[in-house]
Amino acid sequence: MNALAALGEALVLIGTFFYFLSALGLIRMPDVYNRMQTSTKSATLGSLGVLVGTGLWAVGDGLSWAWFVKATVIAVFLLLTNPISAHALIRAAYKSGIPLWQGSVVDKYREHIEAKASPGAAESESTEEGGEE
Amino acid sequence: MIGIGVYLALIAIATLLSMYRFMVGPTTPDRLVAVDIMTTITTGLMVLFALYYRRMIFLDVALVYAILAFGGVIAFARYMEGGL
Predict the structure, then answer these.
(1) What angle, rounded to 10 degrees, do the helices at A2-28 and A32-60 form?
(2) Closest CA to B73 of B45, B47, B39
(3) Does the beta-carbon distance from B33 to A26 stay under 8 Å?
(4) Orientation of helix B4-24 relative to helix A2-28, angle to 10°
(5) Domain parsing of chain B, residue ranges
(6) What is the ipTM of this complex?
(7) Which residues of chain B are within 8 Å of residue A13 when distances are taken between CB atoms?
(8) Model confidence, pTM
(9) What does the pLDDT look like over A121-133, one tens digit per residue?
(10) Residue boundaries of the structural domains of chain A
(11) Which superkingdom heads the taxonomic lineage of this protein's source (chain A) (predicted)?
(12) Domain B1-81 - what CATH class?
């Protein structure tokens, strides 16, 4: 039982460390797209660690298994909905005209929109540019 | 083993950093990203408090908070696209 609590506590430590890393990426990155990329990914991973770790820790402390089940339900919900909200936010940011950082080299979404607007011209342009490395 | 204070300190530092981004963020999506990260962190904090106070009802609070935060972020995204 005590090993379970130790495993859960280690998972909670890893999760909170990833929370810290996500907030650090929110500070350090140059524009909103890079900030969203780093922050949302590591915050989702940190939530998984904290929630599953707290469930295991509670079971190791002598509480019932319902704690683990409820915490895992919240973790699965966050794992499903966090990328959706991030995607919606960043799509709204692109459509409301926020410019990319000047160091960005690939803009696949603009190519996609141009290809949908005028199929012939944009296709030849994209093959000429050769977006893939 | 280590103690809950270390985890609460890490969560507090993360929340303060995202509050900084919320205050100085040059555009509206920056602030919304900061709010999104803060709600995710607060969900984990509520689950930690549920274990600290030994009350299972806080887990239900965390689940409802996660659902409401998701709906709020989706609503803000729709508003910024001009569809709301």
Answers:
(1) 170
(2) B39
(3) yes
(4) 20
(5) 1-81
(6) 0.90
(7) 2, 6-7
(8) 0.84
(9) 545 554 545 545 5
(10) 3-122
(11) Archaea
(12) mainly alpha
